[in-house]
Amino acid sequence: MKSDAVQTCLPHHGRVECSACYKNEGRPVHFDKTQRTLGQWRITANPLAWGNTAPEIIVLGFSKGPTQAGALATTPHDKIAYKGSRLNVGRILAHIGLLPKGEPASLAQAVDLAIANRNGRFHFASLIRCTVERLEAKTAQWKGSGGGMLDKFTQSELGHEVVSACTSRFLGALPPTTKLVVMFGLGSKQGYVNAAFSAYQHARPGAWRKLNEVSYTDGLITVVHVEHFKSQGNLIPDWLGQQSSARAQLGVMAKQAVSAALQ
C-alpha cells in the first residue's frame, strides 16, 4: 500500500463520506436520513470524526448513542462526541494516564479541548461510525443504548458485516504515528473485547496476541478496552479503583497496557 493511503486512512474532523454499507439499497445516501435494517438491527448513515488524522492515540466509542445522534441537527460538531458524558470520559482517560487528573470541571474541559483539537495527539470516533439501533420487542421502538448492545450487534448478521467494513476502512491501515487505540466498552465477561479482537485480526492481518484480559497488540498498535463512559451503578467507580472490587483490576490492566504502548 502506498504511504499516502496510510496517511489518509483516518477521516478529517467533521462529517465523513462513506456509503459502504448502503450500496445495495438502490438509492442515494443522505447524511442522517438513509437507513438500513436487517432483522432487529438498524444503522443510520451519519459517520463523524473529530481530532487529528495522524494521531498518536485513537479513542473509540461503540456507536453514537441516542444523546449524540439526537444532537446532530442542532448541536455544533465539536459538542456532539460524548455529549452529556464528557466528565466520565475524562475520568476514564485520566485513570489510564492520557489526561491529567483533576477536578471535574478541569477534566471535562480537557476532553472538550482534546476533541476540538485537529492537531493534537487524539482522534475521536466510534468503532461503528454510523448510528446503531436495536428494535425492542416489548416496546416496538428503536433504541441506541442498553445492555448487550456491543456484544449482540457484533454477533448479528448486519453487525458482522458493518463491523468488518468499518474496521477495514478506518482501522486497517493507520498512520505510522498511531500507537494506541482506546475502546470504551468491555462487554459481558469481556465479550466485546473478544469480538473486537477478532475484528482487528480480520482488518489488520498480523501477529496479534493478547496482552491481558483487556488489551491486545499486533506489534504496531495496541488496543486497550476501558470501562464504558455510560456504565451504570458502581461499574465506573469500581473500575477506577475507588473501592475494593475485582473490576478495579481491569482498570489496572488497562493502565499498564497504555503505559507500555506509549513507551
Task: Give structural attributes.
263 residues; 8-stranded mixed sheet; 4-stranded antiparallel sheet; disordered N terminus
Low-pLDDT regions: 1-7
Portion of residues within helices: 25-40%
| Strand residue percentage | 15-25%
Main sheet characteristics = 8 strands, mixed
Calculate the terminal CA-CA distance, rounded to whole Å: 27 Å
Q: Could you say which overall geometry the principal axes of the C-alpha atoms support?
A: globular
Number of separate helices: 9
Order of SSEs: HEEEEEHHHEEEHHEHEEEHH
Number of strands: 12
Mean residue pLDDT: 91
Structural class computed from helices and strand pairing: alpha+beta
What is the rounded Rg?
A: 17 Å
Biggest sheet, spatial arrangement of strands = 1-4-6-5-9-12-11-10
Task: Tell me the layout of helices and strands.
Elements lengths: L2 H5 L6 E2 L19 E4 L2 E4 L3 E4 L5 E5 L4 H4 L16 H10 L8 H13 L5 E5 L4 E6 L4 E3 L5 H7 L1 H15 L8 E5 L6 H13 L5 E4 L2 E3 L4 E5 L8 H5 L7 H15 L2
Parallel strand pairs: 5-6, 5-9, 9-12
Antiparallel strand pairs: 1-4, 2-3, 3-7, 4-6, 7-8, 10-11, 11-12
Helix pairs in contact: 3-4, 5-6, 5-7, 6-7
Structural notes for this entry:
By secondary structure, the protein is an alpha+beta fold. The protein is 33% helix and 19% strand. The strands form two sheets. Strands 1-4-6-5-9-12-11-10 form an eight-stranded mixed β-sheet, covered by helices on one side. Helix 3 packs across helix 4, helix 5 packs across helix 6 and helix 5 crosses helix 7. The longest helix is centred in the middle third of the chain and has 15 residues. The protein starts with a helix and ends with a helix. The N terminus is likely disordered.
